[in-house]
Design a protein that fits this description.
mainly beta; 11 strands; globular
Length: 110
C-alpha cells in the first residue's frame, strides 16, 4: 500500500487549494478513506472521510468549506479546500487505516 499526497502550498486567508492522494497497492473503491491533519504542537485530527458508497463525513471545523471526493478509476482521493483560514495550517495526510498513511503535504495559510 502506498499513498502519495500532493497539492499543498502557501495560500492567503480566503484562498483555495486542492489536495490529491494517489493510491497504489489496493483499490480505493473497496476502502473507507480519510484526510487527517496535524498542526505543530497539536494532535492529529480527522478532517473528512469518504465511504465505499461515496457518503462523506466532515469535522465541524471544515464543514461547508472542504469537500472530499475520489476517482476510483484513477485510484485517487481529493480534498478541495475553500475559504481557508489561518487555523487550517497543518500537514495534511490521506489515510487508509491506522497502518497506512501518506507522507503528507503541507498547507500554510498566511
Amino acid at each position: 500500500v502506498q499513498l502519495v499526497e500532493s497539492g499543498g502550498g502557501l495560500v492567503q486567508p480566503g484562498g483555495s487549494l486542492r489536495l490529491s492522494c494517489a493510491a497504489s497497492g489496493f483499490k480505493m473503491s473497496t476502502a473507507f478513506m480519510r484526510w487527517v491533519r496535524q498542526a505543530p504542537g497539536k494532535e492529529r485530527e480527522g478532517v473528512a472521510g469518504i465511504d465505499i458508497d461515496g457518503s462523506t463525513t466532515y469535522a465541524d471545523s471544515v464543514k461547508g468549506r472542504f469537500t472530499i471526493s475520489k476517482d476510483n478509476a484513477k485510484n485517487t482521493l481529493y480534498l478541495q479546500l475553500n475559504s481557508l483560514k489561518t487555523e487550517d495550517t497543518a500537514m495534511y495526510y490521506c489515510q487508509k487505516d491506522v497502518l497506512h498513511r501518506g507522507q503528507g503535504t503541507q498547507v500554510t495559510v498566511s
